[in-house]
Request: fold
Amino acid sequence: MDGEAFEALVIEELDKLPDDMVEGLDNVVFVVEDQPENGDDLFGLYEGFALTERGQYGMGELPDRIIVYRHAHLAACGNEAALRAEIHTTLVHEIAHFYGIDDEQLHELGWA
Reply:
């Protein structure tokens, strides 16, 4: 699947997320990349400061980024249904990091 089609799936899955999950996202952009520059095998990455770590915020900071990596998703998923499910899980996982939920808590909730 090419980058444009994959990005369209990410947008569709993002649109399906509950409003209360995405309405609180402030100064966050979603990006699709093929793979991490350092070669790590990741589905996604949150780059920024979680709400729980922010002091005074909103004075010209660059946006936080949620990155979804295409190659890892395509390698792990054998069909479109599995791909959509994994993209959904990745989005929820990375958005949770924005809200300050760490990997241990995500694991307890079944999202890691």
The radius of gyration is 14 Å.
